UniProtKB/TrEMBL annotation:
One of the Pfam families matching this protein, by short name: DUF6533
Keywords: Membrane, Transmembrane, Transmembrane helix
The DUF6533 domain, residue ranges: 27-71
TM region(s), chain numbering: 24-41, 62-80, 100-120, 127-147, 174-199, 220-239
Name of the protein in its database record: DUF6533 domain-containing protein
InterPro entries named among the record's database cross-references: DUF6533
Amino acid sequence: MSSPGSLSPERAAALVEAIGVNRTVNYVALISVTIIFFDYLHTFPREVNLMWKSKLTITKSLYFVLRYYIMVHSLLWVTYHADHTLTGPRCNFPFSRNSASSQVVLVLCEAISYVRVYAFSGRNRKVLAFLVVHFIAVNAVSFYYIARLVTSVSFLSLPAGWGLGCFPAKADGFALTMVGVTLIVSYTSASIAMVVIGIRRHSSLSGKNKLIRVLYQDGISYFFCLSALSVANISVFHLAPENGVQLIVVQPQVHFSALIATRMLLHLREWSAKQQIVIASEPGGSIEYPVDLGSPKFSSRDSYAMSERAYPANE
């Protein structure tokens, strides 16, 4: 069996650098995993109060799937990098599994953002048709490049006895870039749709109803944050040295996207509950649904009803 001492000085130096980079990438991802579990403990009481007792809806289903699947993804990542006996071709399957899992998390985040746009549109059927077609098209392209990426990756074949784990030697950089680009296109399109709808319904945003403003403002902030993470991921991949550090932003993007999405839904539920209490406490206060949720003309009271139908506080 080879030993580190039998390597040439050049290869030994390259291996030492790779080990340092690999540990840095792992530490950054581990910090992201730690933050996810800390956030879960911090927001768990709010989840119980706002989510557990409500009836099951699409929004609530997406919340719980994302909320708990990100933990499954974190455990998959930890077990993959904690197994130092993996090396060479043995790394291909767990890497492919984790790459597909990362994409599942990002798709769930996208789905939440698209449901948000649909809710903000007043459940407009034309908006729904656009969002469905766009969502399918964007993710078909994204999964194609994910498959292309995982089939292009090769790992250094180091002796298992060294206990160094998996070291990626090469990957299709264009495929990884395109995965990030498709995410940016998706978030940008949803953001533009949100802005256009907001312009058409500016009277609701400037009215007394705070819930509809929260729905809009959080949506724009959400799209900006997720797009910024995608841009950072692409930038680091192209500007960082080709020694493995290019992947340093991948897991932070996956984990923080999930964190932002779930916190956004909790925030909206909180405001929905507050608004319901305020309206119910007003003399003669009641909640009325508009006849045509797709109509471009509706009052602030109608916009609240629209938001309640998409994100009911007492589901």
